[in-house]
Amino acid sequence: MPVTKFHPYHGQNIRLLHDNMVAYRETSFAHALTFSEKALKPGEIFLVEIEKNELGWSGHMRIGLTQFDPSCKFELPQYALPDLQNMGKSWIFAVTKSHNKVVYSDAGDSDSVDREIHQSVLGDAEVIHTPQGSFSRSLLLPLRKLLSNNYETSVSTSSSDSALPTDIGSRIGIMYRVVGDTAEMRFIINGEDQGPCARNIPHQGGPLYAVVDVYGTTKQVRIIQLYCEGESDGPLQKEKVSPGRKCMKCRTENAILIIRVNDAFCKACFMVYVTHKFRATIGKSKLVRDGEKVLVAYSGGPSSSCLLHLITEGLSERAHKKLRFKPGIIFIDESAVLDNLIEDGGTAKDRIAELMVDVGYPCQTRRLEEAICLDQGGHLSEADLSSLTESYQASVCTSDPASPDDNLNKARVEIKALFSSIKSLTAREDMLNKLRQRLLMEVAHVQGYSKVMTGHCGTRLAVNLLSNISQGRGAHVAMDTAFSDTRYSDVMFVRPIRDFSSKEVAMYNSLHGVESVFLPTLTTKTHEGSSIEHLTEAFVTGLQTDYPSTVSNIMRTGEKLSTEKRDGENSNCALCQGPLDTDVGASSALNAVEFSSLISKKKNGRVDGCGDSATCCGEGDGSCHTQSEGLKKDEVMSVLCYGCRMTTKDMADPTALPEKLFRQISYRIRRSKMKEDIQDFLLDPENS
Amino acid sequence: MALRICLEFSGGAELLFNKTKKHEVTLPVCEKDWTIGSLLPWMRETMLKERPELFMQGNTVRPGILVLINDSDWELMGELDYSIKENDRIIFISTLHGG
């Protein structure tokens, strides 16, 4: 059976949503008649659920049957009751809070009729059979009733009974069945047949359409699909739109773009919608406080240009409700890694610097190699300048490759070596992301910014979510995609445009004339399968084209995930700072992998013992634990989360990690070793 | 009559078209009306400098590339069936990471 829908001809106050399966009364309480798209067949149940109510009106939804054909576009009356009923050929029933059971008293009816009234057309079985198909009885029940039935507690009966037929969630069905030469109409309210409420319907006189008057308190109803469950559960597919559509909001201007599933917007309404969405995302989180220093990460790309523009607009005097935080802008120059890819990188970077200055907030350019530069702390605070001109000069001087900064140049060489030692593009991309994140965090930390805003849009985050899972970062998915990322102790990452799709971003930029600078990245002009992230992006955008709800579905699913946060200095990954996910049970898959790699090592005859002479001070028995040279692969791995382990595994030599990282790791390992050694002598804090 | 139109590329799509963001082109005379559906193969033959698979997929643009016709979403203009008029401005924006 095809999907049951409302007929496109309806009362003037009705707007049909969700592929004509939801009827919403936009205003008033009248002019809200809707019909089934097709005539009902005998025994077919037309079921709607009340989705929204609006208090302040009297009366509720009316439902019934009519022989007026909505395709004839006959003049619709204001109400189903009494107007449509008075026009004849219509049988309407008002749903009320109680007393919906029909007591049909027809003079001349005998007792046998009374008994028949109470005999439900639905039967008693769990599966209800109608001529059009069978469905589970539970479909007729409101969600609340279903839940309380499942709990099977003694109190449940009272709570389920207290749900009124007019409440939200209530499911009301209409059907007719043939009795002799005529038909009788039945209501089914929340799984209960209310008995015949109209008889002697001349069903042979013309097809019977279901009619629903979304009247009074009832604001919105949805058709529940009884006969084609599988089809209606699938994601909504893109529809072909006819040219010249009007904006769905103001209904006067011509639409210029389609967003969400199939919503057309004009320019003015789209701008209001985007700005509102941005402000609402920040406002709802209640995280960004007045006067707070916020570091805005700017890459020159469309998303961060859009973010920057929204922030500037929000902070400007003409904004309706001014944003009140204090932004500083940062651009990270990744040329150390992307050097060979950028041909005219110089001019693009100059343009980025100009754009940042134009905005008029403190701005700075940092080089990616600073993330691994040794004397970083000192270097950063030196450049901690809040006045615009000075920081611009500072940025010019740091971005000048000829600056005699030995440490930075050394770091540049080091970072190049690091990236060339990583074999796969996937791991390189991952490493770049982690280093960029570290640098942002450190700059924010040193300069006293408590928040970092990044321009991740919804599409980007959906791609990240899926590719992170494929790369073994499932434990951090929630942090990586939520509005706020709190993995760092004193700096919070926020993603204010996470509800925007990349299309909305591109449209916003194009309509506002926001300039973005294109800088190639690792995967530019590579084939689709060059990295996991790139492949996932092709997958998500490909799906998004035909099923416009893909990105939001992925995002909403991601929101339901969360990671347990553990305390302690050693509970975070040394590279990405996410919580360590490797502390799992003995029978886990991770341990199995480690065990098998240990076995295969033994076969090769290379068992790494503690008494490796290279790492010992001279005793030879390993008792001193002195690390004269580097760390062993296993030790580095032990402080990394699973995802970062995969990335470092891809390096030719994991000990080729930058010296700065290396020092942190060995410091941590020494600390934990020491702690272990003196464990027995420590005073228990609870006893002292 | 030959049609003069303006094609613009951004978000990285320009890399495939000689790194030039703005192209003024004249479409040759053709018996049938020029539509986006016939423009795309023509662009592939005459304008694309490299890697056609990064711009097109089948007979349409690759998913992730947004098409604007005179500042309106092409989905509202009939997509491939839109018939091109004189002085139309068609923008191709790549929304993909790294172009």
Automatic annotation (TrEMBL), chain A:
GO terms for molecular function: nucleotidyltransferase activity; sulfurtransferase activity; tRNA binding. Keywords: Cytoplasm, tRNA processing. Pathway: tRNA modification; 5-methoxycarbonylmethyl-2-thiouridine-tRNA biosynthesis. Pfam families: CTU2, Neuralized. Residues 3-226 form the NHR domain. SMART domains: NEUZ (SM00588). InterPro entries: B30.2/SPRY_sf (IPR043136), CTU2 (IPR019407), NHR_dom (IPR006573), Rossmann-like_a/b/a_fold (IPR014729). Plays a central role in 2-thiolation of mcm(5)S(2)U at tRNA wobble positions of tRNA(Lys), tRNA(Glu) and tRNA(Gln). May act by forming a heterodimer with NCS6/CTU1 that ligates sulfur from thiocarboxylated URM1 onto the uridine of tRNAs at wobble position. Belongs to the CTU2/NCS2 family. This is Cytoplasmic tRNA 2-thiolation protein 2.
Automatic annotation (TrEMBL), chain B:
Belongs to the URM1 family. CDD domains: Ubl_Urm1 (cd01764). One of its GO terms (biological process) is tRNA thio-modification. InterPro entries: Beta-grasp_dom_sf, Mopterin_synth/thiamin_S_b, Urm1. It comes from the Eukaryota. This is Ubiquitin-related modifier 1 homolog. Its main location: cytoplasm. PANTHER family: RURM1 PROTEIN.
